[in-house]
Amino acid sequence: MQPLDSQELTRARDLLRKGDVVAIPTETVYGLAASIASHEGLKKIFSLKERPFFDPLIVHVGSFQQAKEIVAEFPPLADFLARRFWPGPLTLVLPKAASVDPMITSGLETVAVRYPAHPLAQDLIKMVGSPLAAPSANKFGRTSPSTAQHVKTEFEGSNLLVIDGGPCEVGLESTVLTIAKAPNGDDQIRILRPGGVTAEDLREALDRWSKPVEVVRAESAESPGHLKHHYMPTIPLILVSEKPSAQTLSEIAKDLALKSLPKHARELDLSEDAAQAARLLYSEMRRLSESGADLLYVLETPERQGGLWAAVWDRLTRAASWTKTDGSRLDPESP
Ligand code: TXA
Ligand code: MG
After folding, report:
1. Does the residue 68 lie in any domain?
2. Which of 8, 69, 124, 282 counts the most CB atoms within 10 A of its CB?
3. Is 141 left (phi over 0), alpha (psi -120 to 50) or beta?
4. How far apart, in Å, are the Cα atoms of 79 and each of 162, 185, 293, 302?
5. Which of 135, 162, 189 is the last residue of a domain?
6. What is the atom index within ligand 1 of the atom nearest the CA of 112?
7. From the CB of 136, is ligand 1 less than 6 Å away?
């Protein structure tokens, strides 16, 4: 990380105030931020990222007060979760306030809110004086950035200001959740995207909540941007149960319509430790894609389950072009 020039934050503040975008560090991944008060700035996020307008943005706030101002309602259970996990990698989808620009919410009646823990993100939100909408700072569908250099490489040629806050501590995106009603009338937490706050973390916190609450994983369709193919590196990534044999490689080449047989397949070797695996996931995906390899493979191992692994496998499954784990081939699709 380069030492932060104190004038850089001021420059970022000025750019954001006049409706420009700036890349900012958060504890999860880097974000491409615009002030929620600038319709022009919000539009620039979508065009720079080449993101379709149907995919809504997360609003990053710098206080509980700011969070309350952009929602129509902050139910007691949401308040309880916010007090337990904010600032941090938790995004709450709540009914939106009328003042929130529909460009942020893709016309939905809900808005996604997060209070990031990174001190530079907090400083900047305070300096700008309004919350910042920010998706991950990558081109749509591609691998998210967990260092400032990743963002610079991704947007090479643009004059995007990137605030360097060092490598992201969590390394993958926040948990996105919404609160619904279970069939028995109890509150139900629906995880739209697994992330830095795990289902286990939520259940443990809920031990101190007065009523029973079920925590369930939602269908992908409930989150407009949580697409089947996402986070893809620039070379094909496959999930397999063992090192791919020559025969598997030729099957893959055929299925993915590759011009030639992969000659430099490399393993993306995940740490045994889930937090470490999450932290390095996107860095490793990028590093190996740029290493001269022509195929990346990840060994799916049954012991890597639960906790943060849910988020790691979620990302890997969406990043994969091809999977063969139990002898049956699934879903070939070229990145
Ligand atoms: O950790 C993070 O959340 C990072 C950092 C920069 O804060 N941001 C991030 O943003 O991952 P993005 O845009 O890459 O992903 C936002 C996700 C998408 O899957 C989107 O569909 C979902 O949040 N989302 C946003 N608003 C929503 C809403 N109103 N209802 C349901 N899902 C929503
Ligand atoms: Mg993203």
Report:
1. no
2. 282
3. left
4. 32, 19, 47, 36
5. 162
6. 26
7. yes
Domain range for 156: 6-63+98-162
Residue 60: its H or E element = strand 58-60
Q: Which residues of 204-227 are buried (b: 16+ CB within 10 A; e: fewer)?
A: ebbeeeeeebebeebebeebbbbe
What pTM value is reported for the model?
A: 0.94
Is the Cβ atom of 105 under 6 angstroms away from ligand 1?
A: yes
Residue 229: Cβ within 10 Å count? 15
| pLDDT band (50, 70, 90) for residue 274 | very high
Taking the C-alpha atoms of residue 155 and residue 151, their distance in angstroms, rounded to an integer, is 6
Note whether 126 and 258 are same-domain residues: no
Residue 3 has pLDDT above 70, yes or no: no
Distance CA 181, CA 72 (A): 18
Point out the ligand nearest to the CA of residue 225. Answer: 1
Q: Is 201 in the pocket of ligand 1 (CB under 6 A)?
A: no
Average pLDDT over residues 102-115: 98
| Rounded-to-integer distance, Cα 291 and Cα 288, Å | 5
Q: Is 144 exposed, middle or buried (0-12, 13-18, 19+ CB in 10 A)?
A: buried
Q: Could you tell me how far CA 28 lies from the centroid of its own chain? A: 7
**Vertex 59, ends 202 and 211: CA angle to 5°?**
25
What is the C-alpha separation between 80 and 278, in angstroms, rounded? 26
Beta bridge partners, 267, equal 297
Residue 324: what pLDDT? 72
Q: Give yes or no: residues 120 and 265 share one domain.
A: no
Closest residue to atom 20 of ligand 1, CA basis: 225
Is 334 a residue whose pLDDT tops 70?
A: no
